[in-house]
Each structure stands twice: as structure tokens, then as C-alpha cells.
Design brief:
Elements: E1 4-9, E2 14-19, H1 26-38, E3 48-51, E4 54-61, E5 64-70, H2 76-94, H3 99-104, H4 106-116, E6 117-118, E7 121-122, H5 127-136, H6 145-156, E8 172-185, E9 191-205, E10 211-216, H7 222-229, E11 255-258, H8 264-270, E12 273-275, E13 280-289, E14 297-305, E15 309-318, E16 325-334, E17 339-343, E18 353-357, E19 362-371, E20 375-384, E21 398-401, E22 403-404, E23 413-419, E24 431-445
Parallel strand pairs: 8-24
Antiparallel strand pairs: 1-2, 1-5, 3-4, 4-5, 6-7, 8-9, 9-13, 10-12, 10-23, 11-13, 14-15, 15-20, 16-19, 16-21, 17-20, 18-19, 21-24, 22-24
Amino acid sequence: MISALFVYNHKGELLISRTYRDDIDTKTALDTFRAHVIHSRTGVRPPVNTISNKSYMHIYRHQVWFVAVTADNTNATMVFSFMEKFMDTCGQFFGEFTEINVKNNFSLIYELLDEVLDFGYPQTTDPDALKILSDDSKDSKGKGNMDVNKISSQVTGQIGWRRQDISYRHNELWLDVEEKVSCVISPSGQMLSAHCAGIIKMKCQLSGMPECKFGINDMLGEAAKKFKAGEKSGKEAIKSKKKGGEKKSPIAIDDLTFHQCVKLGKFDSNRSISFIPPDGEFDLMKYRTTTNIKLPFVVTPMIQELPDAIEITVVVRTDFDSKFTSPKVEVTIPIPTNASSVYIPSSGTSKGKAKYKGGANSVVWRMKNISGGKTAQCQFRIDLLKSAKKKKWVRPPIRMTFEVPFASSGLEVWYLQVRENKLGYDDTTIRKWVRYIGSSGDYESRL
């Protein structure tokens, strides 16, 4: 298991040191990592280094080294997963894991390190459970035995991610469906491969201990059975679209990962997603789909090679409804390394502006926004250097970055029911908001 955790700044100065086991010498381990990794002359710093029968695993983020040291043959995946989760948990308390934030919150970090590991074994990295400990432990000296037992029961109980005495004046729910679509498009505009990686985020401000039931248009879900039977969801439906809009067909989801609050037993038996949500923001579900993906943009390049020049025309067509608008679209078009100059005429772009980036060997075409069902074009000329040996241009792909207000996978939220038996409120008294955010992952089109 983990013998010690260290945090250095980018210069190698120690910020945090916490030793859990006596199978390492702390001072020796500190100096060894600093000399062999941080100040390494080779410049090669793999994430796992074995030095003198000790394994040093590190994450370098925001110019801060977060290091775990172990003397055993420990599962490296587990260690890195714990380190990533701990840094994310710290972000829930004081923001990004930077040197300034670490220095300003070192006492809180030591307090968290005492809770998340016990003799080198991970215990919990749940932010809600740790917030209960960090808030209540400060006042535990003046509390009675019943209050202390209540804290222990909350942290170690069956629902450790939520307090029992939460109260809000207005009960509200926010839900974001965020997707990143990645694809490879052929020069003729045909899709060669594509997949969507999505995450459903929730922000919960509900009183008491509510039980939620969540439905999407998944082929395996109960909602899909209702769709096939032609049933209507009535009050259960979340009206994220205008009246008169048709429901989307069920989609096939390849991979699913749920938050720990989801009752997996019910999901395995009847494919329903039931859960008691944590308070505040959390990731309810992560998914991945590879079938029936509707690409929001189709890129078609046209290249004409001349003896000492190349003329390139790139056409971008939006393949979504005209009621949607995509803001901040950027197209990066690569050019040969032996280009002497690039001429972009004033009428070369039908929408937006294109600019030559010499250091990146590319032309960057930016559009402030573009509506659905529209077509835009960018045209320019590349003058090439004359050379005795003509090398064939290895054409890198065109890359796109964008955002769209819908899910390219076709995923749609059909209903989100909330029930709280003790306080006696239901769906009719809860405010709900649903938002779809699609963006580009590795969105490439071959030249």
C-alpha cells in the first residue's frame, strides 16, 4: 500500500509530507525523488519510477508534483486513481491544486490526508463525507455522545454521501448532459469512425432525503419499452423541447458508469436508475456510444496542386436543425512545411475570418457563430519553396473545435421523478432545469 505522500512545487521545494508506514525513510525518499525525477538531466520523467526497491508514482499538474511512495508491489492503477480522486476532492474545498492554494490550505490538506488513508490503505475520497468530518470535527469537543455518534453513523453508514438534516427554502434540480463527439471523416465527407463520450451532471438542492428516478431513451431501459408501446410519460416528461416536438428514438449505449448513489440492484433487474442524490454538484452517470451518431458538421476539403503552389478550399456544412446555433467554431487547416507564403483573399471566407499561423504550419479559420442548415467556405493559396528534391506532402487532418446545444448521440432525458416521504413534497413543487451541451473531442477530417 501507500507508504507516504509528498507534494513539491516545480522547483522541487517540499510543500506537504505525510508518512503512513515505517517501511521507508522519509528524508531519503524525499531527496531521491527530487534528485532522480524533478532535477533529472535526461528530461525523461515517466509516471512510475523504481529506485532502490521503492516505487515513486507521481502526477504533475499546475506546476505541482503530487507523489506517492510505496515499498510493496502495489497496484499502480489503484494508486493513480486515488491520487486523481484526491486532487479532485481538494478542488471541491479550495479550487485547483496549485502551489498557492496548497500553501494557503496546508492545514486542511493534512486533515484530509488523515481521513482518506489509514495506514496506507484508501478509506474514502467522497467530498460530501469529508466535508461532514472537516466541518463537524472542529466542534466535536463540545458535542455530546449522541451528536458524535450521529457524525460517525453518517460517514460510515449506508448513505454516507448525504446529510439527513438538509433544508432548502426552494427545492431545485439542475441537470446538464455534456457530450464530446470524436470522429474521422474522409476527404469526400463520409464518416469513417465516430463515438460520443458523455457525462450527466447534476446540481441538487433538495430538502430531506429525496429518492429520484431518472429516465433516458436507452434501448435497455423501461423508457424504451414505453416508447415502443406508444405510451406517453405525461407529467413525468421534462419539457426540454418546444411543444409539438417528437421524442427521439431509443439509442444503444455501449458503456455505463454510475455514481455510487445509484441503486445498481434496481438497474440490473428492471433497468431503472433510482438514487438518493448527494447535496450539491456531482456526476450522476458517464456513458459512451458508437452507433447512430449524428455529426453536427461535415467538412469537405478540395485541393488543387500546382507546380509551385497549392490551392485549398474547405467547405463546412452544418447538419443540424436551423433553430440551433453553434458559437465559436474553429477550423484548423494544416499546410506544408515548405510553404513560403500564404495568401488569403478578402473574399476567401464566406463567414468568419481566417489567419495564417506560421509557427503551427496551419491556417486557423474562426467563426463567431453558425446556424443549422448553413454552409461556409474558406479558400486560400499556398506558395511553396523551390527545391531540388520534391517531397510528397504528408497531409495531416483538418481539426475542428465547436459547441452545440444538443447531444450528438441522440440521448434525451425523458423524466426525472422526485419523491420525499418524510417531508411530503413531490414533483409538482420542484423546479427543474435541463441543458444539453455538445462539444468537439478529436474531430478530424482527412485531406
